[in-house]
Amino acid sequence: MNLQRIGVRKAPPTLTIEFLHDQKLYHHEIAMLSYLSTLSDALSILNALKRDHIAYIQTIPSSQMVRLIEKLMPIVSLPTADYNKVSETQLAAVKSKMDNVFLKNIVKPGDDNYVYDKQVSMIKLWMLYYA
């Protein structure tokens, strides 16, 4: 088996591996949605992929796989569920994703777009939304 290319499809999240075998071109597609929704970080997803698709993944450098997985991770949105009824592991995964989004968007003192004591006119906001 000779690896040719690796591709990523965003909707639905899919990893496509193109390879030559006996002078014929084949594609192996891996549906990533189940991996992305149950596992929280790229390395654990990579380990699960290596476990499930070892014949296709073994020749691909781990750094390249991690980079491709990280491209797909923001695509999977948080599931809408009653978090009072989910298991502790599912709740921890959702909280981890929420924390990552929060840390990515946080603005701290010293950042370029940080404004101390920002004041907003509610009348202007009301006019913007309801006019």
Provide a descriptive summary of the structure in words.
There is one protein chain. The chain is an alpha+beta fold. The protein folds into 2 domains: 2-76, no CATH class; 77-131, no CATH class. The chain is built from 6 helices and 3 strands, in the order E-E-E-H-H-H-H-H-H. The protein has helices at 33-38, 42-52, 54-57, 62-72, 88-105, 122-130; strands at residues 2-9, 14-21, 24-31. It has a 3-stranded antiparallel β-sheet with strand order 1-2-3. A hairpin with a 2-residue loop joins strand 2 (14-21) and strand 3 (24-31). The protein is elongated, with a radius of gyration of 21 Å. The chain starts with a strand and ends with a helix. 9% of the residues are buried.
